């Protein structure tokens, strides 16, 4: 506790801006999460007061197998750490461990119009893919996300393009609440990194590589072995023609070039000249090997951390307590402003 309070005090004194982001433990994380989110989160740790969350309550808006959800939650923590999220610099916690998220979400539900939630693209998409279970949680998903963000008075929220609409609602709700009552919430800004490529599915390269895709051949997981990675890349879909170049009509090759760029740091011009005159076979082998080399140290750390449940639990306990410290202050203010009767004074 002492350490957490001193961390919070330091942040207050230096007035570092606050960042909050999260990923749902709805599957194993992929190389897309690494390049599109985690690599960036790691860089932000030195400059910002970061809260990195595992959004397990969001994950249950679609049906999950309980044992898998539990193990994926712990695996996600191990991956955050293996990628370089440092619990001494950032607060790392599980959403359901901090009750204030559900509590504020309920209040925000009472300030959100039905129309605002029903127009959300993600709700419309998931209602199509999960026709058998279009539940109220899926509908009000964005108000829980707003609670996640507003509880910590986040200045910036790193998200992919697909979450921008949810962030816009968080901003509207914060403004609405501040207007009805008085200034309570900071208005968060989206933080869409300049770099951070979108990785596409290996078999259907016009679709995003996604952890909940049922076809594992589409995905490079962070815990895939060297052989698995090389094989998946070897079997990936390529395009007609034989040239290795970035082009809109070559989504397969362009995606492999992006992967090679992430793994080696070489730019697209360098990659094009390295493989000029060579065939797809040589290129795929080089991409597979480079990606395997890139993933290997992260995978090794992941395995080490995943097997140390005590260490993971200790980090999560400290994270939950630190998060609760901040979140409870915001929630108390909100309860007071809306007129909920309190037993304290
Ligand atoms: P799900 O399939 O469970 O809905 P997902 O695998 O599509 O999830 P999210 O959990 O929504 O991914 O991803 C969290 C964040 O990770 C995104 O906001 C985005 O920044 C990043 N991300 C995920 N997949 C990719 C990808 N293929 N390429 C780049 N960034 C990605
Ligand atoms: N909805 C996000 C995960 C998420 C999140 C958040 C991201 C839940 N709460 C708060 C940023 C801020 C997703 O599925 N990518």
Fraction of residues in helix: 55-70%
What is the radius of gyration computed over CA atoms, rounded to a whole number of angstroms? 21 Å
Mind telling me the CATH superfamily name of the largest domain?
Answer: HUPs
Sheet with most strands: 3 strands, parallel
Low-confidence stretches: 1-6
User: Hetero groups bound?
Assistant: adenosine-5'-triphosphate, L-tryptophanamide
Number of strands: 5
**Structural domains: how many:** 2
* Strand residue percentage: 5-15%
Strand order of the largest sheet: 1-2-3
Summarize the structure.
This protein is mainly alpha-helical.
Structure report:
This protein has 15 helices and five strands. It is mainly α and 345 residues long. It folds into two domains: 6-196 and 309-338, Rossmann fold, CATH 3.40.50.620; 216-302, Orthogonal Bundle (Tyrosyl-Transfer RNA Synthetase). The strands form two sheets. It has a three-stranded parallel sheet. Strands 4-5 form a two-stranded parallel sheet. The structure holds adenosine-5'-triphosphate and L-tryptophanamide. Residues 20-24, 55, 58, 145, 148-149, 157, 159, 163 line the site of L-tryptophanamide.
Give the helix/strand layout.
Layout: H1 2-14, E1 18-23, H2 31-44, E2 49-54, H3 56-59, H4 66-83, E3 91-94, H5 100-109, H6 114-118, H7 121-129, H8 136-139, H9 141-151, E4 156-158, H10 164-180, E5 189-191, H11 226-234, H12 251-264, H13 268-274, H14 280-306, H15 309-338
Parallel strand pairs: 1-2, 2-3, 4-5
Helix pairs in contact: 4-14, 5-9, 5-15, 9-10, 11-14, 12-14
């Amino acid at each position: 506790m002492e350490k957490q309070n001193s961390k919070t005090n330091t942040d207050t004194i230096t007035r570092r801006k606050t960042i909050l982001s999260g990923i749902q433990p709805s599957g194993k994380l992929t190389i897309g999460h690494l390049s599109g989110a985690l690599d960036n989160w790691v860089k932000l740790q030195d400059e910002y007061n970061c809260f990195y969350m595992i959004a397990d309550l969001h994950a249950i808006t679609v049906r999950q197998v309980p044992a898998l959800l539990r193990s994926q939650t712990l695996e996600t923590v191990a991956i955050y750490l293996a990628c370089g999220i440092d619990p001494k610099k950032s607060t790392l916690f599980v959403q359901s461990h901090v009750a204030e998220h559900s509590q504020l979400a309920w209040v925000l539900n009472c300030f959100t119009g039905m129309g605002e939630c029903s127009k959300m693209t993600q709700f419309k998409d998931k209602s199509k893919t999960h026709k058998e279970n279009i539940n109220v949680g899926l509908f009000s998903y964005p108000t829980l996300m707003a609670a996640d963000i507003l509880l910590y008075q986040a200045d910036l929220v790193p998200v992919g393009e697909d979450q921008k609409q949810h962030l816009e609602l968080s901003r509207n709700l914060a403004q609405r609440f501040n207007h009805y009552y008085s200034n309570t919430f900071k208005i968060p800004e989206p933080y869409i990194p300049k770099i951070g490529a979108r990785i596409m599915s290996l078999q259907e390269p016009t679709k995003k590589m996604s952890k909940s895709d049922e076809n594992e051949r589409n995905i490079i997981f962070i815990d895939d072995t060297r052989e698995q990675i090389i094989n998946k890349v070897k079997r990936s879909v390529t395009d007609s023609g034989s040239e290795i170049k970035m082009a809109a009509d070559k989504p397969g090759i362009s995606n492999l070039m992006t992967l090679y760029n992430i793994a080696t740091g070489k730019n697209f011009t360098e990659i094009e000249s390295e493989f000029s005159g060579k065939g797809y076979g040589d290129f795929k082998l080089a991409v597979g090997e480079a990606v395997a080399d890139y993933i290997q140290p992260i995978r090794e750390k992941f395995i080490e951390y995943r097997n140390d449940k005590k260490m993971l639990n200790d980090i999560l306990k400290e994270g939950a307590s630190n998060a609760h410290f901040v979140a409870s202050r915001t929630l108390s203010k909100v309860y007071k402003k809306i007129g909920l009767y309190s037993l304290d004074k």
